[in-house]
């Protein structure tokens, strides 16, 4: 982790540049026929949703690893990933209703994907609450919660295809034509490029905290 | 495997004997479930005193979820108060046996409470309980298993935390909401004026897949979480 110090500023720089260019690419992309300009929010909504789901999986895998091996690094990664699920999930839950207000005429509809995305987001908020208020041993307890959160991810992904729903299905993205696909992939890369350094910085912060706690304990002994 | 099941049966029997003698959880859970039905009855009944369409299924499952949380909080609290939790964990049995034993005892309790709650919902909200009794029983059984599978794990791991009373529902509801949704939707399909059993069967299949995922994860997680 320490050898890769250069990775964080590099990724952040690339991500910043990509986010600066993204509006121009999104503006240049053709307008969707039925929804018009409103559809453009899709270029930020879907990548943030993918990043949030990816982060939930990272949290789940790290939690499982921590439960099995009890390596502090796995716990730090799980905590960092859980915070990022909440962050990117919040972007999804803000951009979604903005789009829905124009496309469906309402801010929120109680249907499968919206509900299960909200549930997943709430579960990771609950994870952070457990970390904050659970007291000693909450790292082990929260890893069980993180594991359950990751299990919800496939249900989020498939919910639109399994259940009758108003939300566009998951087959929309793979069938995008090149003029729309390029800005979409650009935005997705920008989000992932932002995700990696955020995760690393947060893990490093947690490692620092753990080292500080150790130092305090050593001083008291 | 038989050793695990035998140990689980011993633990479940212990809990059920305590419950049969004290009737503490059964009476409190049942009373709370009835109180839930009463509270919701006022929200989901129109001016003519008739229940809104689909309300009966929702009220039934909310009563099950809320009263189940109450029972969950107490199952491990009892062990903590009498300081038998450590003894239970030190017992020379596999950790999953403790989980399965606690889960079985809780399931028996919740299903017993549900018998009364379902009858009461049928009576007060004119729900057609006889429309598809086997399908309804399947939904209730699989939904309760899914809810209790996660609930027992969370209640066990929170038993040593100071804020367990608040944290249990905070953690439990987001995870079990999919189970409650599937239960409500399936029951609504049965209670509808024109019952749709195919739809109910789809929700039942989803509940069973949730149960399989939740029980597998809980069995695997229970040991590491309760190891200290």
Keywords for this structure?
heterodimer; A: 221 residues; mainly alpha; 6 helices; 78% helix; globular; B: 228 residues; 8 helices; 0% strand
Account of the protein in words:
- The complex is a heterodimer of chains A (221) and B (228).
- Chain A is mainly alpha-helical and 221 residues long.
- Helices cover 78% and strands 0% of the residues of chain A.
- Chain A has one domain.
- In chain A, helix 2 runs antiparallel to helix 3, helix 3 packs antiparallel against helix 4 and helix 4 runs antiparallel to helix 5.
- The radius of gyration of chain B is 18 Å and the shape is globular.
Helices and strands of chain A, in order, run as HHHHHH
**Please, what is the average pLDDT of chain A?**
86
Which sequence of SSEs, written as H and E, runs from N to C of chain B? HHHHHHHH
Q: Profile the largest sheet of chain A.
A: none
Overall pLDDT of chain B, averaged? Answer: 89
Low-confidence stretches of chain B: none
Shape label of chain A: globular
Number of strands of chain B: 0
Name the helicity range of chain B: over 70%
Total strands of chain A: the figure is 0
The number of distinct helices of chain A, counting runs of at least 4 residues, comes to 6
Give a short account of the largest sheet of chain B: none
Q: What is the domain total for the residues of chain B?
A: 1
Residue share in helices of chain A? over 70%
User: Over all CA atoms, what is the radius of gyration of chain B?
Assistant: 18 Å
């Amino acid at each position: 982790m320490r050898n890769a110090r250069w990775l964080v500023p590099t990724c952040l720089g690339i991500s910043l540049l990509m986010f600066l260019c993204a509006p121009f690419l999104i503006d240049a992309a053709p307008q969707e026929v039925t929804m018009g300009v409103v559809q453009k929010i899709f270029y930020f909504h879907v990548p943030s949703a993918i990043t949030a789901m990816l982060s939930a999986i990272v949290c789940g895998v790290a939690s499982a690893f921590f439960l099995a091996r009890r390596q502090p690094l796995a716990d730090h990664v799980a905590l960092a990933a859980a915070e990022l699920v909440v962050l990117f999930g919040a972007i999804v839950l803000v951009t979604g209703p903005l789009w829905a207000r124009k496309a469906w005429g309402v801010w929120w509809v109680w249907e499968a994907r919206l509900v299960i995305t909200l549930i997943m987001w709430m579960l990771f908020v609950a994870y952070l609450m457990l970390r904050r208020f659970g007291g000693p041993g909450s790292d082990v307890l929260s890893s069980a919660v993180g594991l359950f959160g990751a299990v919800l991810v496939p249900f989020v992904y498939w919910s639109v295809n399994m259940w009758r729903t108003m939300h566009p299905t998951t087959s929309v993205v793979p069938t995008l034509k090149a003029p729309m696909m390029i800005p979409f992939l650009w935005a997705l890369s920008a989000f992932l490029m932002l995700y990696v350094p955020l995760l690393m910085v947060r893990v490093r912060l947690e490692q620092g905290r753990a080292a500080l706690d150790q130092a305090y304990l050593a001083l008291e002994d | 495997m038989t050793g695990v099941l035998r140990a689980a049966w011993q633990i479940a029997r212990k809990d059920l004997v305590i419950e049969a003698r004290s009737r503490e959880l059964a009476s409190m859970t049942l009373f709370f479930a009835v109180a839930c039905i009463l509270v919701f009855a006022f929200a989901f009944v129109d001016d003519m005193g008739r229940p809104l369409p689909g309300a009966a299924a929702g009220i039934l499952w909310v009563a099950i979820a809320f009263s189940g949380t109450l029972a969950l909080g107490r199952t491990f609290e009892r062990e903590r108060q009498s300081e038998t939790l450590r003894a239970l964990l030190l017992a020379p049995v596999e950790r999953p046996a403790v989980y399965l034993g606690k889960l079985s005892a809780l399931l028996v309790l919740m299903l017993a409470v549900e018998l009364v709650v379902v009858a009461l919902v049928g009576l007060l909200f004119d729900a057609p309980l006889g429309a598809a009794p086997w399908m309804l029983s399947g939904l209730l059984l699989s939904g309760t298993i899914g809810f209790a599978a996660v609930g027992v794990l969370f209640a066990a791991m929170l038993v040593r935390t100071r804020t367990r009373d608040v944290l249990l529902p905070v953690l439990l509801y987001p995870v079990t909401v999919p189970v409650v949704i599937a239960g409500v939707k399936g029951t609504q399909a049965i209670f509808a004026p024109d019952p749709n059993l195919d739809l109910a069967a789809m929700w039942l299949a989803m509940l069973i897949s949730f149960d399989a995922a939740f029980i597998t994860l809980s069995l695997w997680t229970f040991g590491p979480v309760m190891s200290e």
